[in-house]
Amino acid sequence: MRHQAHHDMLTGLPNRLLLADRLRQALLAAQREGHKLGLIFFDLDKFKPVNDTYGHAVGDILLQQVATRLRATLRASDTLARLGGDEFVVLLPRVSDSGDARKVAEDILRELNRPFVTEGFTLSISASLGVAVAPDCGDDADGLLRCADAAMYDAKLHGRGRVAVHDPSQACVAPPQAARAPPEPRPGSVRPQLARARRTWPISTPLVGRVGMRARLMSRFCCGTS
Question: Which of 45, 60, 86, 154 is catalytic?
Answer without folding.
Answer: 86
